[in-house]
Design goal:
The chain has about 220 residues and is mainly β. The protein has two helices and ten strands, in the order H-E-E-E-E-H-E-E-E-E-E-E. The strands form two sheets. Strands 2-1-3-8-5-6 form a six-stranded mixed β-sheet, with no helix packed on it. The protein has a four-stranded antiparallel β-sheet with strand order 7-4-9-10.
Length: about 220
């Protein structure tokens, strides 16, 4: 009986961890009916906030956030999806310049760096960067890491930093002889194919810093 209870408890803990992981994941979903991207989970600070894990940041923290970019368009279209950084809001530059930010993309079962700089910079994401060509149901995963120096000045306590990301969608018709690639395929698509629509949205990265209490 004890073994059964222990097993049930273990399964319950695994389910809770799974729900927790799902709740803290950021999502960018392209809806071809609305011709726009839908962002979640959002927050009280912004409906397009993708970074629930980047809250209550403290000195010495290294925080991670996974973002899934997915194509939920019909089977009749494929999309190329791009992203770029517009940098920090003017009143956030000083704060975010103290923090490090990296962005990696899953590519051919390997992680490829897309961004590695101070959080306020646009750096490698100044210009549009193609995340890949996605067929219906395809997705690309981004792993974002925020690094806070342990000696960050307490003058930054309780500040909120805003960083804008922008996504762009190019929609193409699927031709009869067009082979369906694996999910998240990054194969090149010739640009002479008609562009059906462009969807753009601004992502707000929210950072809330609180002073670490002295032991």
């Amino acid at each position: 009986m004890k073994r059964v209870i222990a097993l049930l408890f273990a399964l319950l803990m695994m389910a809770m961890l799974t729900l927790s992981a799902t709740a803290t994941q950021g999502n960018v979903v392209y809806d071809d009916g609305a011709k726009e991207c839908i962002f979640s989970p959002g927050s009280e600070y912004s409906p397009t906030d993708l970074f629930p894990n980047f809250k209550d940041v403290m000195p010495g923290d290294t925080l991670t956030q996974q973002i899934t970019v997915k194509n939920e368009a019909s089977n009749e279209v494929k999309i190329k999806i791009y992203m770029r950084s517009l940098g920090a809001h003017d009143d956030s530059v000083e704060f975010l310049s103290k923090l490090g930010l990296t962005v990696q993309k899953s590519e051919n079962n390997q992680m490829a760096y897309m961004f590695d700089a101070a959080a306020d910079e646009t750096a490698q994401l100044t210009d549009w960067v193609c995340l890949g060509t996605l067929y219906s149901g395809g997705e690309v995963n981004l792993d974002v890491k925020l690094t806070v120096p342990v000696d960050l000045d307490n003058n930054f306590q309780s500040l909120i930093g805003y960083l804008d990301w922008e996504f762009r969608i190019e929609e193409f018709p699927i031709e009869k002889d067009d082979p369906t690639p694996p999910t998240g395929d990054n194969s090149n698509i010739t640009l002479w194919i008609a562009v059906f629509g462009i969807s753009a949205a601004i992502i707000v990265v929210l950072l809330l810093f609180k002073r670490k209490e002295n032991n």
